Amino acid sequence: MNDEQLQQLSRRIGEQLKKRQATVTAAESCTGGWIAKVFTDISGSSAWFERGFVTYSNEAKQQMVGVQDTTLQQHGAVSEQTVREMATGAAKAAAAEYAIAVSGIAGPEGGTPDKPVGTLWFAIAGPEGRVLAQRQIFAGDRDAVRRQSVAWALQTLLNEFLIN
Q: Of 70, 110, 149, 164, which has the highest C-beta tally within 10 A?
């Protein structure tokens, strides 16, 4: 997905959020703020996106969005448990109705046999405590993995939470 397609997706998300008078936040690790950038590429996005969190280190995940130390020790940063806590913690910290969390291994180093390069965990939190968590494995170089991650997260927020 190219930059223009990401912006179109972001614009559609913004329209749906405005209809709901709702906001979204993001807790990003390997995407490094790319989701926030795509949201803020849209003029008027301050109506539905107030803040995001770049929680690259485990310490940042704990301090900024409330991930428990025991979760990180037992499951690691790239896990369903961690992204669920990131999403719910970010939504709470930002007082947002929706939150996207992403943590993964964009490469080229850092992969293991259990979690190869390109492995990402996503969680999207919505109203009434609903959280969707899913693992994806993307191919390509670091930039390609990160771009696919942003696209997948935005498309999933739109499809699973906003147009149903």
A: 149
3-state secondary structure the chain: CCHHHHHHHHHHHHHHHHHHCCCEEEEECCCCCHHHHHHHCCCCHHHCECCCEECCCHHHHHHHHCCCHHHHHHHCCCCHHHHHHHHHHHHHHHCCCEEEEEEECCCCCCCCCCCCCCEEEEEEECHHHCEEEEEEECCCCHHHHHHHHHHHHHHHHHHHHHCC
What letter represents residue 146's amino acid?
R
Facing residues of 51 across strands?
none
pTM: 0.97
Q: What is the mean pLDDT of each run of 10 residues along the chain (164 residues)?
A: 96 98 98 98 97 98 98 98 98 98 96 95 97 98 97 98 88
Question: What's the rounded Cα separation, in Å, for the pair 143 and 4?
Answer: 16
C-alpha closest to that of 91 among 63, 56, 62, 53: 53
Cα(146)–Cα(150) distance, integer angstroms: 6
For residues 162 and 22, the answer to whether their CB atoms sit within 8 Å is no
